[in-house]
Amino acid sequence: MATGSLTAGKIAEVLFESALETYEAQDMLLDKVSFMEPDGATMQISGNAIWRPVQQHGPVIAGWDLTGLETGIIEETYPAVLGTPSNDFVSQRADNMRDMSFWKKRGVESGRQQATELNKTIASAIALQGSMFYRSNVTSGYSFVAEAQALMNERQGKNTGRTFMLNDRDTLKFANDLAGRQTLQGRPDETWRTGQVGANIAEFDIFTASFLPNLVGGADPATTVTADQSFKPEAGSVTATGIVTNVDYRVATIPVTASASYNIGDKVTFANGGVTIKALGLADKSDTGVAMTFTIVAKPSGTSITVYPKPIAVNDAALSTLEKAYANVNTKILNTATVNRVNTDASKKTNLFFDKDAVEVLGGTIPANLFRQFDGFQVINSTMKNGQSMYMVYDGNLNDMSLRYRLFTWYGVTIKDPSRCGVAVTY
Q1: Which DSSP string do the residues of 345-403 spell out, in sequence order?
Q2: Distance CA 252, CA 379 (A)
Q3: Preceding amide of 213 cis, omega within 30
Q4: Strand, coil or helix: what is 341?
């Protein structure tokens, strides 16, 4: 392109299109999770947070005469929150605006960094908030992945599409075994360029990823619970004065002797008298015989921990027939129960597995047409194939002869169902 044909608009369009194409090609995780973009006006009114419902549960009541046995409906909710925009903010003087390839290369880099940031944000949320966990020293890649399949299937959660992300070192260990199963036979070469190692292996699509985080752990602090625990499913309520109270269905805060030695993201089990609390099949309430794992998401005080998911016990006499339909563990956590950290490695690179519907990305919007009316501002925006929007706002400065642009995406990541997300590590 001749220098004389360069315009600020063409420079911006080339950079934006390069960033957009690169982002779409390298965004590995967004189309593996659920995505929604709520109405912008609604999000402004609610302070960029919105309460969302989750799947309801209901009991099966036996008998002919059900007089007086009717139940209500509990609609549990969770908060989905927009974060702050992820930006590429640059100013360049006029003498750096003569080479179009310079701007195209910057667009590629900007798109790559934006995609990496989103992937890293999703992966970090799953690693810290996902409640399923196991350590394994198997040498078979299929056996390693199939452990996650068994955990998810026996707990009878929804299967809306499952993904397993292997870190680079464990990919090196397992890739030959996984790829050798010919589950990608006949697929286009592009699948390999996006990091896919295998498809429909133990119900998972398998990918390799360099952005997976470490999980910090350590020796078990051997804390004990200081009171009997009873939790129930709760819906939002409206007070007599009309105040709406929402309840995050995932959260339980448990009093313990000491919480200081725990990390946010620790995976723990509870044991009454040395017997671990077991996970249930959500549909038939069958005891899986496998310890229920929880993830620590907060330490409100030196003597309490907050965990996902909320442990609702099928044997809790305080629960109604309807409330027991939401049970996910076989028995209550009792006073003096031990809290046992199971991620006992000081630090381990994670492998992540999750169901598509369990992770939600919330997209944010700005009034692009309004910004186009601002004096000196120009706006480019596009909705990508995965539903997310990318924006570029740019202007010029006569004082220093510079072009300034801000390219950004805006989203928030929510682990809507931590019991269908997990971490696996090797040792």
Answers
A1: SSEEE-EEEEEGGGEEEEE----HHHHHTSTT-EEEEEE-TTS-EEEEEEEEETTTTEE
A2: 45
A3: no
A4: strand
Say which residues have a Cβ less than 8 Å from residue 166's Cβ, sequence separation at least 6.
174, 175, 197, 206, 207, 208, 209, 351
Q: How far apart are CA 85 and CA 228, in angstroms?
A: 43
Q: What is the dihedral of CA 351, 353, 358, 364, to 10 degrees?
A: 50
pLDDT above 90: residue 388? no
pLDDT digits (tens, 9 = 90+) for 285-335: 999 999 999 999 999 999 999 999 999 999 999 999 999 999 999 999 999
Q: Which residues of 117-145 are buried (b: 16+ CB within 10 A; e: fewer)?
A: ebbbbbbbbbbbbbbbbbbbeeeebbebb
Work out the angle at residue 153's Cα, subtended by the Cα atoms of residues 163 and 180, and round it to the nearest 5 degrees.
50
Backbone φ/ψ region at 239: left (φ over 0), alpha (ψ -120 to 50), beta: beta
- Phi and psi at 168, nearest 5°, equal -60, -40
Share of residues in the chain with pLDDT > 90 (%): 58
pLDDT of the residue at 372: 63
* CA atoms 220, 224, 225, 226: torsion sign: negative
What token pair was written down for 181?
């199963």
The answer to whether 292 touches 311, Cβ cutoff 8 Å, is yes
* CA–CA gap between residue 259 and residue 99 (Å, rounded): 58
Q: Which two tokens stand for residue 133?
A: 């966990």
Q: What is the pLDDT of residues 110-164, one digit of tens each?
A: 888 888 899 999 999 999 999 999 999 999 999 999 999 999 999 999 999 999 9
Q: How far apart are CA 51 and CA 53, in angstroms?
A: 7
Please report where in the chains the tokens 């390069």 appear, as a residue: 18
**Residues 12, 103: Cα–Cα separation, whole Å:** 8
